[in-house]
Design a protein that fits this description.
Layout: H1 4-26, E1 31-36, E2 42-47, E3 51-54, E4 61-63, H2 67-70, H3 74-106, H4 109-143, E5 152-154, H5 156-181
Antiparallel strand pairs: 1-2, 1-5, 2-3, 3-4
Helix pairs in contact: 1-3, 1-5, 3-4, 4-5
């Protein structure tokens, strides 16, 4: 039986994973490039799901991918935009999960006894969408020609996405384990049916 404290802790951790997802969307650090010249100056470029930043461009950040980026490689742009769409969709799934948490926690003993299944499904769906988005970026990083030059690396926004998805899976497993392993709450006892007596 999943107890209110278990739901409370799970909700707190899930709010943190939601913040990680939002940060990884807003920051342009999914894939980064850094090289230091013989003169000692360092050139950096970082790609986010929706913008690119460079140490030599003015302004330093611009929308990404734009038409110039897509002129020669439509596949890359389609996949990159798909990754951005998926991670944005993950935030919608996370909002639905947060609402489900609140409804289950406020719904009484019966909803707590059965609600972990619905929350677990939302958590697994969220993780699947985030892993897909993260996997697309990793695939492009491994296969696209623009990342062949040494100095490119997957950056911390990618790591945040991976951590967020992994923690969602762990929360789902923890809720399932608590439902199976913890004894029922002792709020009240069921009355026996007089016909059975």
């Amino acid at each position: 039986m999943t107890r209110p404290i278990v739901y409370g802790v799970a909700l707190g951790v899930f709010v943190c994973t939601t913040v990680l997802t939002i940060v990884c969307i807003l920051t342009p650090h999914w894939v980064s490039y850094s090289v230091t010249a013989d003169t000692g100056s360092t050139f950096t470029k970082s790609l986010g799901l929706h913008k690119s930043c460079s140490s030599v461009d003015e302004p330093s950040c611009r929308p990404f991918p734009n038409d110039d980026d897509c002129r020669d490689d439509q596949f890359f742009c389609s996949m990159w935009r798909s990754s951005g769409f998926l991670i944005s969709f993950a935030t919608i799934v996370e909002l639905a999960t947060l609402i489900t948490f609140l409804v289950v926690m406020a719904g009484g003993k019966y909803k707590r006894e059965t609600g972990w299944k619905l929350i677990g499904c939302f958590l697994i769906a969220d993780a699947a969408v985030e892993f897909a988005s993260m996997g697309i970026v990793a695939y492009l990083f491994d296969t696209d020609s623009q990342f062949i030059i040494p100095g490119w690396s997957l950056d911390w926004s990618w790591v945040l996405c991976t951590v967020s998805a992994s923690v969602s899976v762990l929360i789902a497993v923890s809720l399932a384990a608590s439902a199976w392993l913890l004894p029922p709450e002792d709020d009240y006892e069921y009355l026996e049916d007089p016909e059975d007596a």
